């Protein structure tokens, strides 16, 4: 595997190709991608994402780069409902699994009114490339298969041509997700690996 800087360079070249922004994947499937990387490269990946977002503001790429930090979206929602202290108490009293269930309920993650879906749909222009970051910070409260199955697959069809790239601190084989290269998550195979 190439080093992280080479892979980030390849990722940058990929997203700038006009063909990348057209829903012409394998058999016209969804335009969902995974950029996986070794967890120890988290800071390099964050720096490159911030650099690309800032560079994109010049308006010369032909698309708008939109970055959603899933962890920040969850925390902002919990703070807006004054739920943070309740979350701390819930985790201490009942454990992380019960906290995960409670947070997913408040986000309506399994409902048609999924708040993450609503936020992304309302804030994403048609001519965009979307970066989803922060999945490592969310673990285990929100895991990558849930991002795909409960968030991305519920994005309105009008966004089918908008490429969505999940930045994943771990390994994705187009069959299996292994967060932090230690914990296998549910198998997943409907997104494409952005850079090998």
Question: What key attributes describe this structure?
Answer:
about 200 residues; alpha/beta; 7-stranded mixed β-sheet
Secondary-structure map:
Blueprint: H1 4-16, E1 32-37, H2 42-56, E2 64-69, H3 70-80, H4 84-94, H5 96-106, H6 115-123, E3 128-133, H7 135-138, H8 144-151, E4 164-172, E5 177-179, E6 183-184, E7 192-193
Parallel strand pairs: 1-4, 1-7, 2-3, 3-4
Antiparallel strand pairs: 4-5, 5-6
Helix pairs in contact: 1-2, 4-5
Give me the secondary-structure category.
Answer: alpha/beta
The whole-number mean of residue pLDDT values reads 89
Number of strands: 7
- Low-confidence spans: none
Helix content: 40-55%
Measured by DSSP, the beta-strand proportion falls in 15-25%
Q: Which sequence of SSEs, written as H and E, runs from N to C? A: HEHEHHHHEHHEEEE
Radius of gyration: 17 Å
Shape: globular
Number of helices: 8
Q: Span from first to last CA?
A: 7 Å
Query: What profile does the largest beta sheet have?
Result: 7 strands, mixed
Give a written overview of the molecule:
The structure is a single chain. This protein is α/β, with parallel strands linked by helices and 196 residues long. It has a domain at 4-8 and 26-69 and 118-193. Helices cover 42% and strands 17% of the residues. It has eight helices and seven strands. Strands 1, 2, 3, 4, 5, 6 and 7 form a seven-stranded mixed β-sheet that branches. A hairpin with a 3-residue loop joins strand 5 and strand 6. Helix 1 runs parallel beside helix 2 and helix 4 (84-94) packs antiparallel against helix 5 (96-106). The longest helix has 15 residues, at 42-56. The protein is globular, with a radius of gyration of 17 Å. It starts with a helix and ends with a strand. The mean pLDDT is 89.
């Amino acid at each position: 595997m190439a080093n992280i800087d080479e892979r980030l360079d390849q990722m940058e070249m990929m997203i700038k190709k006009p063909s990348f922004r057209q829903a012409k994947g394998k058999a016209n499937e969804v335009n969902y991608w995974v950029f996986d990387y070794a967890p120890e490269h988290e800071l390099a990946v964050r720096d490159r994402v911030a650099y690309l977002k800032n560079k994109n503001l010049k308006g010369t790429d032909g698309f708008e780069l939109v970055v959603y930090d899933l962890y920040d979206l969850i925390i902002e929602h919990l703070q807006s409902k004054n739920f943070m202290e309740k979350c701390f108490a819930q985790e201490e009293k009942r454990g992380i699994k019960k906290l995960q269930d409670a947070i997913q309920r408040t986000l309506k993650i399994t409902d048609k009114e999924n708040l993450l879906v609503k936020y992304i749909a309302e804030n994403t222009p048609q001519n965009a490339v979307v970066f989803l970051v922060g999945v490592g910070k969310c673990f285990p409260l929100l895991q990558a298969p849930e991002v795909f199955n409960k968030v991305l697959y519920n994005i309105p069809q009008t966004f089918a041509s908008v490429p969505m790239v999940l930045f994943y601190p771990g390994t994705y084989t187009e069959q299996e997700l292994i967060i932090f290269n230690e914990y296998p998550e549910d198998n997943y195979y409907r997104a494409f690996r952005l850079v090998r």
